[in-house]
Structures
1.
Amino acid sequence: MLAASAVTARAQAAAVQPAPQAAEYTIPFVTKTLANGLEVIVYPDSSVPLVTVELAVRNGSFTEPPEFNGLSHLYEHMFFKPNNAIAIYRCDLSKTYGNDAYFTKNNCAETLKMKAQVGDVAYLSDLDKTGIVRNGTTQEEYVNYYYTATSKHFETLMHALRDSMLYPVFDESEFQQEIQVVLGELDRQESQPGYHLQTTMMDKLFYKYPSRKRPGGTRETVATATTDKMRTIQKRYYVPNNSALVITGDVKPEDAFRLAEKLFSVWKKGDDPFVKYPLVEHPPLPKSEAAFVTQDVDNVFIQIGWQGPSIGKDNASTYAADVFSGIVGQPDSQFQRALIDKGLAVSVDVHYYTQRNVGPIRITLVTTPAKAKQAVAALYQEIAKFTSPDYYSDAELANAKTALESSDLFSREKVSDYTHNLSFWWSSTGTDYYRDYYKHLRATSRADVDRYIKTYIAGKPHVGVAMLSEAGRIESKLTDGDLIGK
């Protein structure tokens, strides 16, 4: 299933009739690569006078050995902290208004020597007046930072993003404060039952290198982080040839490219981090494995996971994975009828997460303790039928593709959010993959879906996890064998 935006309920509820063949679906963004390797992606939409400017970096947990696990996320938290441009601006103000105490205390004489490198910082006087929204996120295969404001402030946003990227300070006191903020986030995550289901599944599915699938990291690595490690991350991954500038909204592509060239050309190209620090190779599961997660929940949450296809190794199966998830997700599919309509489950879905470094396939089923054993058995009976020629109709195959296209259209309703979709696809698949995604999606055949299922699901080692309460486990009578279909 599409990672950045799931098939929407509206799309899933389409009638099970073959959709008429529509005109070829395209995603209207344009790109330009600067001489330093920075890819600039522009998606213009002048329906409202807003613009979003985002920097995406191929970083995140897939680059993290255990000692760095969670530090890409910590770096994200430091991104919008005061940088050298802000330091210059404050020193300029102190000099202008004769604040000698501030000037001396903050070593402004030295700070102002950086003006030749950093350039004009007068734009900062307007930054707080823009009404901006700013934030960042960290996932497995990318980190992104963005500003959104009215389009008249476009240049100010571009300038601010550039200076945050190129001239960080990593002030020690700010850093220690942010460590506590991130530890608080980890505590909140760990208070959610779903966190433990997700972590157990991913740790077992990617058993040799679990840190590569944990964007949040651990309390130990975050608590013992240093600013030297922040600079290591910056040096390795924060280079233009490992980054993309994504601009969406009320802006003309030619203006965006011109300003990107003006501001970001000073960013020096670096070594390809994935040549110098190659991604790990996740070994296949040697056998199926079961696990129970005890949490204070009323229902029983069952998840079955497989290692799925990787971008760059088996692209055809990534399209087939999305299509198949769309097929079995339709309310009238045989899969849903066997589990939902018969009252065995409250919900059930099949999800593939598009990734460059092994995307997981997961089936998640929610049921009650009383029905859990029967529901899991029925689920494995359905999995055994996935490759049957009559498991789904041509209409369901066509509608799955239409639903995926519709999902992308719905995601554009809020262009600022669509910016993050573009960043995700750029990082995990590349813009060429995403540009041609729907062409390949439409070409996906039954044979392609069948090959995907036989290669990654049917008869393959997998992980079965049940999250339930102590009382629920006793009532359900679930066993390890039930969870792995034995």
2.
Amino acid sequence: MSSIQKNSIFIATSLDGCIADRDGKIDWLHEIPNPDNDDMGYSKFISGIDALIMGRTTFETVCGFDIDWPYDKPVFVLSRTMSEIPQKYKDNVQLVKGSLTQVLAEIHRQGYHHVYVDGGETIQSFLNEDLIDDMIITIIPKLLGGGKLLFSNLNATLDFECISTQIFLGKVVQNHFRRLTT
């Protein structure tokens, strides 16, 4: 585990910046044929993080997938409304509450310093408090015409620089951005 504190995003959007369609669904993410199951850098990314923090909606979405628990890293669920984690996930997930700085302080106290932030509202909350250090955004070449935007309701302008761009499957563009500090 790294002692440098860093918060990162790894997420996909449509061309029009949506992370979910108008019905909150993400099926469209898997419409491009991927015969070799290219994970587009996800394994490399996840191997470099210490823990994940996600919002309740993202947690419930992951729990709804017909798969075994997909993470081998500690997962923290940030929620104002959940009172406890379902029994099935208690060995893998901790519920956290409080301000983002309090939550991060607790996660860091436990020895986790490079945190993967996931979930639209959670990402927006972290951005609003200028707590995101880098973002890997994979753009699926599809216009949804509406849905849940990744970057909405931001309070201020934040400056990032693109440090790399890759193309996967001949049509999916992935950009890696790093936060510029003032």
